[in-house]
Amino acid sequence: MTKRKFSCFNFRKDEANNTGEIDIYGDIVADGFQWFDSDITSFDFKKDLDALGDVDKIFVNINSNGGFVYEGQAIYNQLKRHKAEIHVRIDGMAASIASVIAMAGDVIEMPANAQMMIHEPAGGAFGNKSELESAIRSLEASKQSIIAAYKSKCGLEDSAIEAMMAEEKWMTGQEAFELGFATAVSNPIQQVALAKSPITNTFRNVPKQLLEPAADKAKPQSLDVDTIVEAVVARLQANPVEDKTEPPESEQPNKQEKGNPLFNALKALSK
């Protein structure tokens, strides 16, 4: 087994089984926009993909908010072009352009409580009317290419996919499977909260549980000393501790212990 880490993500190659594994655990960005160590560019992704060599199967593990459309489309096309079987595993989240990357999988596996989100591409523009109209045409072209990627897996009509994208459709693993965006549903894993990144702020309908900590642990309760003392005293009254001859001074508890009624009560209770 070989393993190497680039600045953006990990890849692993299993020589014995001639398989590879790549993690996409961050935002999809263009070169020069890497704000976090986990950010991924199509250039770096290709380096790892090429480094895997002539493997029979590649596992692509995804937990990503998405990001730049063209970068994600490049990664999608790199995977589609590869001759290996592509097995996508959505470990927590495949949102926006990351959901398009997932469509490159021959197998798209999602735990029942994982999330996939599809929406319309967005962008900004500044300039005169002609320049703004050009930006709109560019967005429309991106939208149609994204619809084509989804349709290649789910088989839904363009109009149905377009409507889901317009509403910013969020799907659990089971829902994605039923709609054809996933090919298999696996057992639930712990929900993964969305990373705090600039991309998250562009979403409109993020499920509440994805904005909260992944593990919803109960807050620790404060220690009610009075209640404990009352319970100990009641126990001692019901079962009095027989007085014993006081031990030699060298064996007596220190003054702090001797003067602490809670300590003495707990000590007596343990006898």
Automatic annotation (TrEMBL):
What is the protein name for this chain? ATP-dependent Clp protease proteolytic subunit
Q: Where do the segments described as Disordered lie?
A: 238-263
Q: Which GO molecular function annotation, any one, does this entry have?
A: ATP-dependent peptidase activity
The answer to keyword Glycoprotein applying to this record is: no
**Matching InterPro entries, A to Z?**
ClpP, ClpP/crotonase-like_dom_sf, ClpP/TepA
Q: Which Pfam families does the annotation name?
A: CLP_protease
| BP GO terms, sorted | protein quality control for misfolded or incompletely synthesized proteins
NCBIfam families on file: Clp_rel_HeadMat (NF045542)
PANTHER family hit by this protein? ATP-DEPENDENT CLP PROTEASE PROTEOLYTIC SUBUNIT
- Which keywords does this Swiss-Prot/TrEMBL entry list? Cytoplasm, Hydrolase, Protease, Serine protease
Family per similarity comment: Belongs to the peptidase S14 family.
The UniProt transmembrane annotation reads: none
Q: Provide the species name.
A: Listeria booriae
**Chain intervals with Basic and acidic residues compositional bias:** 241-258
What GO cellular-component annotations does this UniProt entry give? endopeptidase Clp complex
Organism lineage reads as: Bacteria, Bacillati, Bacillota, Bacilli, Bacillales
